[in-house]
Amino acid sequence: MDAAESKKTPLYDEHAKMGAKIVSFAGFYMPLYYKSIIEEHLNVRNNSGIFDISHMGEITIKGKDASAFVDYVFTADVSKISQGEIVYSLILNEKGGIIDDVTVFKFSGEEYMVVVNAANTRKDFAWIQHIQTEFQKKGKDVSAENISDGIGLLSVQGPKSRDLIYPLISDIVKIGKCGLFDFNFKPKNIKDLKHFEFGCAEFKDVNVEALLSRSGYTGEFGFEIFIPAEKTAILWNYLLKNSHLSNLLPVGLGARDTLRFEAALPLYGHELDETINPYDAGLEKYLSGAKDFIGKEALKNIKNKEKRLIFFKLSGKQIPRHSQRILDENLKPIGCIASGTYSPSNKFPIGSAYISDGGVDVSFLKNFFIDIRGNFEKAEVVSPPFHRNFKAGSLK
Amino acid sequence: MIKSGSFYFSKSHEWVGMDSNNKYHIGISDFAQSELGDVVYVSLPEAGKTYKKDDKIGEIESVKSVSEIYAPVELKVISVNSKLNDTPELINQDPNGAGFIAEVEVSNDFDTEGLMDESAYKTFIDSSHHE
Known about the structure:
The structure holds two protein chains of two kinds.
Chain A: E1 7-8, H1 12-17, E2 21-25, E3 28-33, H2 37-46, E4 48-52, E5 57-62, H3 66-73, E6 86-92, E7 98-108, E8 111-116, H4 121-137, E9 143-146, E10 151-157, H5 161-168, E11 169-172, E12 176-178, E13 181-183, E14 198-203, E15 208-213, E16 222-228, H6 232-241, E17 248-250, H7 253-262, H8 296-300, E18 308-314, E19 325-327, E20 333-343, E21 348-355, E22 368-372, E23 375-382
Parallel strand pairs in A: 1-3, 4-17
Antiparallel strand pairs in A: 2-3, 4-10, 5-8, 5-9, 6-7, 7-8, 10-16, 11-14, 12-13, 14-15, 15-16, 18-21, 18-23, 19-20, 19-22, 20-21, 22-23
Chain B: E1 7-9, E2 14-18, E3 24-28, H1 30-36, E4 39-43, E5 50-51, E6 56-62, E7 66-70, E8 75-80, H2 83-86, H3 90-93, E9 102-105, H4 118-129
């Protein structure tokens, strides 16, 4: 997308005031880093960090047939989760290609919220509207709404994030309004939330009601905080004013990417796109065996993996980058880089790649090369994640 | 001829400067390092090799990007800053000092044409890079 068309999140002025390096990403002007990607990354691993992720999309799906609808559009068993729970899922096209990877929040059997990648919000919403029309033609009651512009979304991540959040909130555990949302179930206390559960709380002093979920994209303990767009700057500044509680630093998209990649979490456009199916990406555990969904029929004909996603580390210092070639030990091209970056936790370059032969025996790939602008850099297959107990030689 | 202790900058954000011992060094500007972000790898030029002005002499990789280093003047590399092999972050910390790229030899009365002194360079980056 042209930079001229980029939108601003409610925090654009705050990022600019803090001297962030601003880049255009997924149609939004976003902070790449405030001071240093490496420092921001390590602070999330050791303390805590706050991210503006208001660029992400939110789509609500409501109606008497909302459960049937989400079960048809998404690959995971969405309707089976409980109220107040979240599930990770894929959206596939009819050929089994990945349209997006999303999380779905269940408010009730008649109300869900889907959180989608910023770059895909329009595409996903158009797809969902298309399926909605099919449902409505059959007399089903379902309606989807893109509420992205009205929502501010902050993410607080890191082992100390609880030390920031818990003292600043009072729980709201009753049925009823929660900021922009309507809770038709009694939510848990925030402290009692398990991973992929959500509740409601009010931030004291600033009187901001928020939906808080125990979720994130870093591999660390953390929260994502959904608030009305117009309250975003108030809450952002309030949390940063209390940064001493958890050694909180603002974190840009640069460290968001290195953090998610060390945790081996896929990024749409890198590990995932419409030419890749869930088997290629190693995401078959998010395919329900219990129901029909779009793309399921096509996946039945995919007997073998067409490609295979591998993770690797490099012995050199040059950083592998998206779409560079992978060569076997005879320098024959065998695939392409999906993601490549520097690992701040390990201080060496790491990456992921799709090997064109899905049946490849990974033990043959002990040593291979990456063509980094004409330099053939040696790489070694490893098992992610890269940020836990990662010691040389311990990963096979 | 450039003045001792001063820096001259290219449009591609390299500098050449002469220290108090009349030795010439080259490096990248503070503006360039701040645009790159955390530097994690530097491919250095070859000691002993001669480069023409604007020849590619190396590469700098940050976490997010890679960019090329060009010779700001015609030069011969005397020695490279090998500290950058293990501590590339010196470029972020002290781009005009400990984070220099190489010590170089330049012809005595080298041509500063096309280079900018510090105040002209400041005007250049303010005018072409403000957002």
